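Following up on my earlier message about zinc ion. Here are the inputs again, as you asked, copied directly from the submission form:
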Amino acid sequence: MAEIRGQLSKMDVSLSSGGVADYKMVLGEQSVAMQPFIGRKIKLIFDGKIYCQACSSMTEKSFSRGFCFPCSQRLAQCDLCMMKPETCHFISGTCRDFKWGKEVCMKDHIVYLANSSGIKVGVTRIGQVPTRWIDQGATQTLPIFRTRSRYQSGLLEMVLKNHVSDKTNWRTMLRGVADPVDLIFMRNLLMCKFNDEIRILQQRFDESAITPLCEDIMLTIHYPVQFYPKIVRSLDFNEMSEIDGVLQGMKGQYLILNIGVVNIRKFSGYQITMIL
Ligand SMILES: [Zn+2]
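Thanks, got it. Here's what our run produced:
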């Protein structure tokens, strides 16, 4: 039996050559590949301490998924514009951290279609692919635009949101594999339907700012899940200090256990002991 203790971070995800998502639990400096433990009992114990992921000070409560209150008010990554890229205010000179904004938001982004619980549209930085898709539990993905900044991707997303959702229904995502959809057909439909709106945005920025991606490279992602739950019960370290059950698999940022699911990302900074 192994016992690993440390501050929890979001699971480290990657895509294996066979198109299967690989998962590692990260506790402080240590990381553990979780696939070998599917079908086995695991225990997670929260000792009551939460540490801010930016300044390392202890905090009673976690803000913006893993920060103390002052850091959540100060850091650019906790600003509201991270949830709403169309409100990026870097250009107006009011970014909370100019250097950070330049490195994160003023870099090439993509607008993509994904199927996690049905078709959705999303935005991510080029370097975040395929991590972002695995974090959302997407089973099919298709990049449809490349833009020069997060803001431009956000504006395109706003247009496409008129026809497809920008949300994942996490309960549906965790209940099974989403029915396959034709993302290429949907991309073509969106390009036609919003042709005028897209052209207006292209004219607003310089010519190379917004590039439609017309290659048919749809990615399929498989998740290491033995059994999907019929009823999704969310387990919360704020309500129970010990989570003890049989690991059935991983999808999105969730551990699926026989007794319920744990959103690992939600508990970033929590001091956890994992017994395998
Ligand atoms: Zn802090």
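One observation from looking it over: DSSP finds seven helices and 13 strands in the chain. Hope that helps, and feel free to reply on this thread.
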